[in-house]
Amino acid sequence: MKNIQLIAICSFSVFFSFIANASTKNNIDSLYKELKKSNNDSLTVKIYVEIIEQTYFKNPEKVITLSEELIKITDKAFVSADKNQKYYFLGIKASCYNNIGAIYNQKGDIKNAIEYFHKGLKIKEQINDKKLISSSLNNIGYLYGSIKDYDNALVYYKRSLKIKEQIGDKNGIARLYNNIGSIYDELGDSAKSLQSYRKSYNISFELDNKTGMALALNNIGFTYEKNGEINTALSFYEKSLKFRESVGDKNGIAESLNNIGNIFLDEKKYDKAFLYANKAFAISKELGYPEYIKRSSRLLNEIYLKQKKFEDAYKMYSLYINMRDSMMNEENRDQAIKRAYEYEYEKKSTADSIKNYEIQRYEAIKHEAEINKQKYYTYGGVIGFLLMLIIAVLSYKAYKQKEEANFKITLQNKIIEGKQKEIIDSINYAKRIQDAILPSEKYIGNILSKKK
Length: 452
Known about the structure:
- By secondary structure, the chain is mostly helical.
- It is 82% helix and 0% strand.
């Protein structure tokens, strides 16, 4: 399975310069001690950001709570801040909304994910910060991709990439090439997808960004697997797993374990497949993300079936269905589609031609959907009427044929009766003639008596 990357924690880096490898930073306990001593709003915010960055990979669920706390701090500090500080606090608040949206998305809560992305985008447009706007364009591209509108996803990813290149954000450029590659994968263009993934890997390698390198390697492996080059795919998946283990990326580890497990399942090495799938399942349950639980439970279901462990297979399949349904319920699907289109036209101004075009496109899609719906009803009615008409015509034709057959039978019976009557009459007539010509038995008897 390939990965598409939302821009989440990294969006904080517009305000601060951090060392990429979290292991070289102060540990979280030390940061909390510094937080208690802090009597300066800007310093407090900076410490919170570092805590969130270090928490993300090891305990993503806690990022929501920490980000909500940080939003309250920035709101309070905003009241007495000067112009530059207000810009600073608004940027942090926007990044918090973006981070919360990213976590909700991982949890399969599309409704809340869209809501928080939208909140973050509005603030970023308000402060007109290119880097932050670029991160939201990336996320909107992701949303279009999630509803399989790949053309629009590609448009937004490329708009985001253009801004990243203008401001020289190399980490952001690497992420965008990864996401663009994923869209080319969906469109069936393996050459362009591999080209994009390799660009992503090369930039991450240059920056010594192990998380970025692992992501690109995983996606290169996915493309090779999709093209049937299994051994090459396995090699890339294993390299990706090593990088992810080295940085403690639990999400990525679960993904890589699943991918390797799938390879061994296809090769009928069921014991090895189970080893990787079971580890992925354990991490997925620990994280609590429906998407990861869905993938690992599905893989375990297939392995158990091959091993003829039908009871275990049934349990895993039931869990897979529950996770799938929780992610694809109608409310979430409708909300995702609606909010994805609303992103670009919630502003009051109608002068923006791109926004107007998107509104018109959305309305046109809605109108077309209604028309299609009515067409289905109309076609259904017409088809039903035609079927009834055909049945009626066939019934009437059958009736007429039967009536005609009955008439012929009746006519034939009458003809036969007539013929029979003619024959009987002829017999009777012949008998009468015979009686008239031949002498009676009494007359013949008298003649014979006289001769004696």
